[in-house]
Design goal:
Shape: globular
Number of helices: 4
Strand content: 25-35%
Largest sheet: 7 strands, mixed
Radius of gyration: 17 Å
CATH architecture: Roll
Helix content: 10-25%
Structural class: alpha/beta
Order of helices and strands: EEHHEEHEEEH
Number of strands: 7
Mean pLDDT: 89
CATH class: Alpha Beta
Strand order of the largest sheet: 1-2-3-4-5-6-7
Number of domains: 1
Length: 153
């Protein structure tokens, strides 16, 4: 079954691109300028590549999130996972309504999540992504009060 790369949104749009096997995803290297041109053409900021298998046998999917303007790769992306799950459910690639997802293993930061989809493949009504998280960064933003007032008036 030939599947298209497709822009999918559950609030934030991403280019969702299926791969035949997880081994294909292991070989992907980002060409930032080329990916920026492609994403500009389709009107999104990142691509979410996925395969219908995982590193663990119980996983339904493994994915990679590539953003040519930001970090080189994200270890787990909930918003894009929801779009990918909707794609998988819409095309009947997995029966759902619950999927176990993996991402980040190739970065040495394995992530696991659960996706639940409500509705039918033709009319998805809700998408929920869950999983454990680990704080890796914390910061404080200091703003000049005069500039904040100036911009909000």
């Amino acid at each position: 079954m030939e599947l298209p790369a497709q822009v999918v949104s559950t609030g934030v749009p991403f280019l969702i691109a299926p791969a035949a096997k997880i081994d294909s995803l292991k070989r992907v290297e980002m060409d930032r300028p080329a990916l920026q041109r492609l994403l500009d053409r389709v009107g999104v900021h990142a691509v979410f590549l996925f395969a219908l298998e995982g590193f663990s046998p119980q996983a339904d999917t493994f994915a990679r999130f590539l953003d040519p303007w930001g970090t080189s790769e994200d270890s787990f992306t909930g918003s894009a996972s929801g779009c990918m799950g909707s794609y998988v459910f819409h095309y009947g690639l997995k029966p759902g309504p619950r999927l176990l997802m993996e991402q980040g293993h190739l970065l040495g930061r394995p992530g696991h999540g659960t996706l639940e989809i409500e509705g039918t493949p033709k009319c998805i009504t809700a998408v929920r992504v869950g999983g454990a998280a680990v704080k890796v960064l914390e910061g404080v933003l200091f703003l000049d009060d005069a500039k904040v007032e100036e911009e909000t008036v």
